[in-house]
Amino acid sequence: MEISLKAEAAHVADPWPGYFADRGHPGARRIGAGVEGVVYRLGDGQVAKVWTGRPPTELTRQVYADIAQHRLPFATPEIFQVHEHEGVVVTYERELPGVPMRGDSAHEDYERTLPVHHRNALLAVLRGLASVPGTDAMRRLTVQGDDRPLWEGHDRFQDALAALVVRAADRHGAALAVHVPDFSAGVERTLNALRSLPDAPVTAIHGDLVPPNIHTDAAGRPVAVLDFGFYTTAGDPAFEAAVTAAVWDMYGPYAEEHTAELTRFFAQELGYAPAALTTYQAVYALTTYDLFGMDDSDGHFRWCAGQLRRNTVFSTQIS
């Protein structure tokens, strides 16, 4: 999180270090601020977040705990305590190590050659998360932009996703159809491909493994994964791989090449069917296109439309 000059000025009269000092954390230091709130390092591997956005629910806390109980090769968020002070929620959480793998592709251009250490770090994260069994708490999460838990009324991940695709297309599909030829038929092709996918293990899915959400050490190894919640659920680990391949570089000059290369790499290294990865990439675009804007002026909307126009499951019937 970056601290602006305006935020630094406000920091002079910041009451929260005193609040934390009164509660046994005299060395509390503000280390960042973002849309969710302000973060303070408390020491002893712990941080506190003062929430200005929507705070985490007890369900979120349970999902964090479900993941944290497994011995992964990288740290994940864990909420130790939740307090409230004068109507403001304060969470005490595990401090996550490392630094972001790299900045978002919307703000820095990625080189054409995909760095080997980045590719290997992504693979390690995918393998780690795929080792965590899906839990009831994960199934009860709601994907951002939707109005109900993803798994509600369903026993198969693919069927739950198909219902989500239908709801998302009904929301503002007409806006997307302006930019995506043969939209209705493409949705049907995607639904048919999705429902025909075989059953798969149900594991933890982060759903938003963009580079800033993966922290690495000086050697490039992943040491932390953060910011669960955007599309976090339980499901087929191939979905995680498909989405990760698509979102690692969304806006750079070689984004299409990187997506294709990572999709092939994950299919080969993890044994996922390429058609399944392509299907899941179409599903991701169809279910997130309207979360930040509903026309071509919004970068994510424009990216989703481009994904669908190029997606061979959405745009052509699979033989």
Automatic annotation (TrEMBL):
Q: Which SUPFAM superfamilies match?
A: Protein kinase-like (PK-like)
> Matching Gene3D superfamilies, A to Z?
3.90.1200.10
Q: Which residues form the Aminoglycoside phosphotransferase domain?
A: 28-250
Keywords recorded for this protein, A-Z? Transferase
Please give the superkingdom of this protein's source.
Answer: Bacteria
Q: Name one GO molecular function term.
A: transferase activity
Protein name listed in UniProt:
Phosphotransferase family enzyme
> From what organism does this protein derive?
Nonomuraea polychroma
